[in-house]
Amino acid sequence: MQFVNFLSATTCFFLLLISIHLFFAKNGNRRQNILLSVLLFSRFGQVLNSLFITTGNSAPLSIFFQFFTPLYFAAPACFYLYITSFLSKKPILTKRDLFHFIPAVLAIIHILPWPGLAPIDWNRITSELHAEGYLSLTAKSGLFPSYIHYFFRPVLTIAYLGLTWLAVIRSRIISSGEVSNTAQYWAIFLLKVATFFQLLGLLPILLRNIGVPMENAAFMVINCTALLLILLYALHKPSIFYGFLLVAIDWNKQEWREKVVSDEMSAPEDFAISDLKAKALRLSTKKFNLSETQISLYAELIKKEMEENSLYLNHDLQIIDLAARINIPVHQCSFVINNHIGKNFRDWINGYRVANFLTQYPVLADKITIEAIAQESGFKNQATFYNAFKKEKGVMPTSYFSQELSAQKPI
Fold it and tell me: So where are the chain's domains?
C-alpha cells in the first residue's frame, strides 16, 4: 500500500507541476496552454481522489471530489478543442465553442449547496467508490441524481473522444501521411494516449463482467505507471516536452529550432515525399552557404508549401514548422526567405495574411468586424494586423478602403 501511495503522490506531483506551469506560461499559445492545463489538472484530481478513496479518507474526499467535478465535465470539451485546433487551418476559439462547456456549468450547479437538499453521505460515497469506482456510484453527491457520474460522465467522455477521432479521420492526416509538423504529431500522439486511458478506464468493468476481480489499488498502479511512462517518453522528444508540456523554451531562438528540425529530419519518414522535396534533400548541406540552384529550389519549395496549404492562416505558425514540413534546416530556410524572397519570415507571412484579408473583406464585411476577418486571415491580434497592413499597403485599413472607394466613383 505504501508503494501505491508513493506512486500516486509522484504522479500527482508531476501532473500538478505541469498543469500549473502551463496555466501561467508566457511562451506558446495561451489558449492552447490553458486547455491542456485543464486536462492535466482534471487528471491530477482523478489520481488525488483515487488516493483518498484507497486510504478510505472521506474527509478530504468530500472537498476535492466536489471541487474537481466541474473539471471532469469540462475536460472532454477541452480535449476536443485542443486536438482539433491543431488539425484546423483556423485555430480560433469562437463563441460557438463555448457551448461545449455547458456540461461543466451543469456540474457547477450540481455541486452548489442548494437549500433543502439532504445531507450528502460521504462515508457511503467513499465505500462505493472504493468498491467499484464512480461507474457504480448510487449515492447522490449533489443536486442531480447519481447517474450524472456513472452514466452521463462516461458517455460525455466517449462521445467527445469519438468526435475527435472523427475530426482526425475527416482531415485525412493519418491516411495521407501528412503528419509532417511537430504540432500535428503531438495532436495525434495525445489522441492515442487519451484513447488508451479511456479503454483502460473500462477495463475494471470488463473484468468484473467476466468474473475477474480487480482491486482499485491495482488499477491505480497501472494508471499511474502508464502516465509516468508517457511523461518519460515526452522527455525524450524535446519538440514535444519543451514545445507543449513545459513550454519553457523560446522557439524563436535559432539554435533550438535548428536542433529540433535536425532531430526530426534524422528520423525515418513513413510517407513518400515529392520529387521536389527529394531533390532538395539531396542538395542540402550543413554549410550555411548555398548555391544559386539550391536557393532557387528552396524558394520554390517554400512558396509552394505556404500557398498550397495556406499555412499563413495559422496565427501560431513559426519558421520551425515551415522548415520541418519541407525537411530543410531552419537556418537555410531563414536564409532563403531573407535573401531570395527579400523579407524576414514574419513580414513575408503577414503579406499573405493581408492579401487574404483583402480577398475576404468584400465578402464578410457586412457580417463580421474587420478585426474578426483579420483573425480569420491568420493575424494573432489587432495590433499585429494594423501594423502589418500599414507596412504592406502604406496606410491603415480604413484609409485604404476610402481610397479604393474614391477611385471607383465615376468622375
Answer: 2-245, 254-342, 348-408
Give CATH for domain 2-245: 1.20.1070
Cβ 398 vs Cβ 390: under 8 Å: no
Residues shown for the chain: 411
CA-based end-to-end distance of the chain: 89
CA distance 364 to 371: 11
Is-contact 157 76, C-beta < 8 A? Answer: yes
DSSP single-letter state for residue 290: -
CB 62 within 8 A of CB 122: yes
pLDDT score recorded for residue 245: 83
- Nearest CA to 30 out of 95, 119, 93 is that of 93
Please list the alpha-helical segments (H only) found in 210-246: 216-235, 238-240
d(CA 352, CA 302): 13
pLDDT at residue 156, as a whole number: 93
What is the homologous superfamily of the domain 348-408 according to CATH? Answer: Homeodomain-like (1.10.10.60)
Are 261 and 181 in contact, with CB atoms under 8 Å apart?
A: no
Find where cell 482539433 sits: 84
- Asked if 2-245 and 348-408 have one fold, the answer is no
Report the C-alpha gap between 340 and 350 in whole angstroms.
Answer: 17
353-360: long-range pairs with CB below 8 Å, 24+: 353/312, 353/313, 353/377, 353/378, 353/379, 353/385, 353/388, 354/388, 354/389, 354/392, 354/393, 356/310, 356/312, 356/313, 357/385, 357/389
Q: Are 333 and 319 in contact (CB under 8 A)?
A: yes
Report residue 79: phi and psi, to 5°: -65, -45
C-alpha cell at 7: 506512486
- What is the phi/psi pair of residue 403, to 5°? -65, -40
Question: 178 by DSSP, 3-state: which?
Answer: coil
- CA dist 67 and 300 (Å) reads 55
Mean pLDDT by 10 residues, the chain (411 residues): 81 91 83 90 89 78 90 94 78 80 95 88 84 77 88 91 91 61 79 84 67 65 83 77 70 41 41 47 49 83 89 88 85 85 89 91 84 89 88 87 69 50
**Strand, helix or coil for residue 329:** coil
Do 216 and 53 form a contact (C-beta atoms < 8 A)? Answer: yes
pTM score, whole prediction = 0.60
Tell me the helix, strand and coil percentages in the chain, rounded to 5.
Answer: 75, 0, 25
Amino acid identity at 313: L
